[in-house]
């Protein structure tokens, strides 16, 4: 079981009517026994992923899938506390996971996926 985290971006004050809505963007998922899974945007790579993720995380209110708000500091503390847990990028034979799926990469020591895993 896990919990997904999102950022609710602010609407652009100068946008036209059809694009003035805010967006709920997936930041990642915290699953029991695993490192935090960071959601990467398609144009992110290992060099820019974490700075871009931080910029995105600071762009609005962070909530979990249940609608509870979280501070960025609290989310970063959760991520830090999970850094030594199971890796999504390494086979886990005891769980019958023998291959790592494409779309995962490491950026600044964090595991990112370009696939939708909500």
General description of the model:
- A hairpin with a 4-residue loop joins β4 (60-64) and β5.
- It is built from two helices and seven strands.
- The chain has a seven-stranded mixed sheet with strand order 5-4-1-2-3-7-6.
- The chain has helices at residues 49-57, 72-81; strands at 2-9, 24-31, 37-39, 60-64, 69-70, 104-107, 110-113.
- The chain is of the alpha+beta class and 118 residues long.
- The mean pLDDT is 87.
- The protein has one domain (2-113).
Topology, element by element:
Elements: E1 2-9, E2 24-31, E3 37-39, H1 49-57, E4 60-64, E5 69-70, H2 72-81, E6 104-107, E7 110-113
Parallel strand pairs: 3-7
Antiparallel strand pairs: 1-2, 1-4, 2-3, 4-5, 6-7
Q: How many structural domains in the coordinates?
A: 1
Oligomer: single chain
Based on secondary structure, the structural category is: alpha+beta
- Uncertain spans, ≥5 residues at pLDDT below 50? none
How many helical stretches? Answer: 2
**Strand arrangement across the biggest beta sheet:** 5-4-1-2-3-7-6
Mean pLDDT: 87
Rg estimate, integer Å = 15 Å
Q: How much β-strand is present in the residues?
A: 25-35%
- Percentage of residues assigned to helices: 10-25%
Tell me the total number of β-strands.
7
User: What is the rounded distance between the termini?
Assistant: 11 Å
Main pleated sheet: 7 strands, mixed
Order of helices and strands: EEEHEEHEE
Which word captures the global form?
globular
């Amino acid at each position: 079981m896990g919990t997904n985290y999102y950022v609710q971006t602010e609407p652009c004050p100068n946008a036209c009517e059809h694009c003035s809505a805010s967006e709920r963007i997936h930041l990642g998922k915290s699953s029991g026994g695993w490192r935090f899974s960071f959601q990467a945007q398609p144009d992110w790579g290992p060099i820019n992923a974490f700075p871009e993720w931080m910029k995105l995380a600071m762009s609005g209110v962070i909530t979990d899938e249940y609608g509870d708000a979280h501070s960025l500091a609290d989310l970063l503390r959760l991520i830090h506390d999970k850094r030594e847990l199971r890796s999504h990028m390494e086979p886990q034979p005891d769980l019958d996971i023998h291959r790592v799926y494409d779309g995962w990469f490491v950026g600044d020591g964090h595991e990112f996926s370009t696939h939708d895993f909500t």
